[in-house]
Amino acid sequence: QLHSDQDKGDGSLKYILSGDGAGDLFIINENTGDIQATRRLDREEKPVYILRAQAINRRTGRPVEPESEFIIKIHDINDNEPMFTKDIYNASIPEMSDVGTFVVQVTATDADDPTYGNSAKVVYSILQGQPYFSVESETGIVKTALLNMDRENREQYQVVIQAKDMGGQMGGLSGTTTVNITLTDVNDNPPRFPQSTYQFRAPESMPLDSPVGRIKANDADVDENAEIEYSITEGDGYDMFGITTDKDTQEGIITVKKALDFENKNLYILKVEAANTHVDPRFLYLGPFKDSATVRIQVEDVDEPPMFSRPAYIMEVKEDVPMNSIIGTVTAQDPDAAKNPVKYSVDRHTDMDRVFNINSGNGSIFTSKPLDRETLLWHNITVIAAETNNPKQSSRVPVFIKVLDVNDNAPEFPMFYETFVCENAKAEQLIQTLSAVDKDDSYSGHQFSFSLAPEAASSSNFTLQDNRDNTAGIFTRKIRYNRHEMTTYFLPVVISDNDYPIQSSTETVTIRVCACDHRGKMLSCNAEALIHPTGLSTGALIAILLCIIILLVTVVLFAALRRQRKKEPLIISKEDIRDNIVSYNDEGGGEEDTQAFDIGTLRNPEAIDDNKLRRDIVPETLFMPRRTATARDNTDVRDFINQRLKENDTDPTAPPYDSLATYAYEGNGSVAESLSSLESVTTDGDQDYDYLSDWGPRFKKLADMYGAMDSDKDS
Predict the structure, then answer these.
(1) CB neighbours of 20 closer than 8 A, spacing ≥ 6?
(2) Domain with CATH 2.60.40.60 in the chain
(3) CA-to-CA distance for 105 and 142, rounded, in angstroms?
(4) Can you list the residues of the chain whose pLDDT is less than 70?
(5) How far is 472 from 447, CA to CA, in rounded Å?
(6) Cβ distance 496 to 507 under 8 Å?
(7) How far, in Å, CA of 636 to CA of 665, rounded?
(8) What is the pLDDT of residues 442-489, one digit of tens each?
């Protein structure tokens, strides 16, 4: 309660309050000065409030005393239970840990005032998890409480820890949390085979590295602590079999290392050991971390193919050996107890030329064709051995045949030698150096000798000097040469080798005589191929190209003229029946059809009638055909053309532009007159064609034709 000395109880003063929570959390009676809290206070929310109070005159509003400040402190009570920092703790420790091994530390906090009483004093205890774990009451550290906890027996533990305030006394508040503890694995269990003996069967034809069987030793540990390595420690099959570890299943896989043979040995006994790869020295006292078992492998008999005495054969033969000569023998036999006979043959896919053959009974290989080392040095063939009773049982072996060299090839030039000599050459001048090659093989190196052929040694214009290093030089013998007298010299050279038997050959060197400058550089030769490359010059190519262009232009112009000639005239009129051109527009029925047109008009133009129209169709023209004067028998060509030209110029029916007018004038002067057979049909009398024979050989064919017709009529 606030009270002012100036307060006389007459209600003239008014108390007001300001500061933390004034008007909200704290209110004051303005008449009496009593201060009250409107709701329950929480120290954990705000432990101290600072307020200011003042008494003022109600009437004037002026303070009657200076403002006073006072502090309200909230006294703590135990109204908050301890709270853990985590709802659930997770921890892990290795199995077989010692007692007191640290597991995890839990922490709980109390919101109450730690300086006032025991409200915030927290004590830890374990509610669940004994006797395996314990907790320190003041620090909250969880430790192991039991020795040799085994993960293989139990892996997960759930521990409940309680935190209680008031120092753990009666009436204190508490909170709990859960700690999940996992035991991690250590290698405390050795591998163990579930049985002491294993038995497997393997056919003797089993390929190498094939699995025979699987065995497995059990290990209660996990991950790397359960990894096992298998090995064969002893037994009569120590070198015949091997064992590997399957990393996924930790099984031991027994495989075949060497070929099995039932006839030699049909039972193998092995001792297999399984050991951990990661051993923990702390647990060696539990015993050796390995185990062993016995494996018995029974080999089963199968029908095997013949087996060669060697995996491959290498033979040598000289290239000059006669055909059918034996060069070697292969041997194979049936490994089975029956010892079936074997038949030999050559795989012809490896000897397509059939150079070799084999004796099917004893395996002797002999040649069937001549050999040539220079053509093929090695022959790689395959020999097949099959059982006679069961040909399906067969085996193969490679045979490598090397052809040995004999001196059967003469040395020769490595290239065609063609050189030149200058007309102004001096005597004893080197013009060409020669070398040689030999297809034969020489173990000590080739040694060639060069010499001129006997027929050229004395009469040659050149000399040959052997350099004794497998080369030779050609030198001039005289001072000058004349290409007009001799353009080309052919110099025969004999080349011999130093092997046995000695082989020699005669090669030819071509020497051309050429004109040279004072430095010896060739200027011209009769053989232009020596100095000019083969091909056409630039001028020749340009000339050929121009010819092609001119030819193309000519073809284009010719095609254009042909197209222009084929163009139709400007006027095509069906009604234009001037002169002797008549358009009928029908095919007709041939010579026997006389209804479509008057054949007599064509035979004799003078027989045209003014009013005579076509008899088979209705006339199409509006104008009557104009009368054209017939030409007199002796009318001159010039007069006839002038007359027709005048008629066309004065014709009112002619078109107002240029048109084509046909005059159809045969002219006079022919002794034989008209040769047309059209006019002759109009005469009733028979014609006499004997005069055709008097006209010469050009009319002989025509005379024979009409003479034959007369003879037919007479007969």
Answers:
(1) 46, 49, 50, 51
(2) 13-73, 83-184, 197-300, 307-404, 418-524
(3) 6
(4) 526-537, 565-636, 654-688, 707-715
(5) 12
(6) no
(7) 10
(8) 777 788 899 988 888 777 789 899 999 989 999 998 888 888 888 898
User: Phi, psi at residue 93, to the nearest 5°?
Assistant: -145, 155
User: Cα separation of 666 and 664, whole Å?
Assistant: 6
Q: Give dist(CA 254, CA 14) in Å, integer.
A: 107
Q: Which CATH architecture has domain 13-73?
A: Sandwich (2.60)
Which architecture, in CATH terms, is 83-184? Sandwich (2.60)
Class of the 307-404 domain? mainly beta
Rg (the chain; Cα; Å):
68
Q: Which helix (H) or strand (E) holds 680?
A: helix 677-680
Rounded to 10 degrees, the C-alpha dihedral 264/265/266/269 comes to -170
DSSP 67-133: -EEEEEEPPP-S----EES-SEEEEEEETTPPTT-EEEE--EE--S-TTSTTTT--EEEEEESTTTE
CATH of 197-300, one of 2.60.40.60, 3.10.129.10, 3.40.720.10, 1.20.1050.40: 2.60.40.60
Q: Are strands 174-184 and 88-94 parallel, antiparallel or unpaired?
A: parallel
Give the helix/strand (H/E) hosting 476.
strand 471-476
Q: Residue 25 and residue 35: Cα distance in Å, rounded?
A: 10
CB 369 within 8 A of CB 353: yes
User: Is the Cβ–Cβ distance between 37 and 26 less than 8 Å?
Assistant: yes
**Alpha carbon distance 538, 554 (integer Å):** 25
**Amino acid at residue number 591:** E
Range 335-363 burial, b when 16+ CB lie within 10 A, else e: bbeeebebbbbbeeeebeeebbbbeeeeb
Please choose, from the candidates 109, 135, 132, 134, the residue with its C-alpha nearest in 3D space to the C-alpha of residue 122: 109
**pTM to 2 decimal places:** 0.42
Q: Which two tokens stand for residue 287?
A: 């015993």
Question: In this structure, which topology does domain 418-524 adopt according to CATH?
Answer: Immunoglobulin-like (2.60.40)
Measured from the Cβ of residue 574, the count of other Cβ atoms closer than 10 Å reads 9
What's phi and psi for 474, nearest 5 deg? -100, 130
d(CA 270, CA 197): 10
DSSP labels, 213-235: EEE--B-SS-GGGG-EEEEEEEE
Cβ atoms of 68 and 16 closer than 8 Å: no
How many C-beta atoms lie closer than 10 Å to residue 299's C-beta? 21
pLDDT, one tens digit per residue, over 285-328 is: 787 889 999 999 999 888 888 999 999 999 999 988 999 999 99
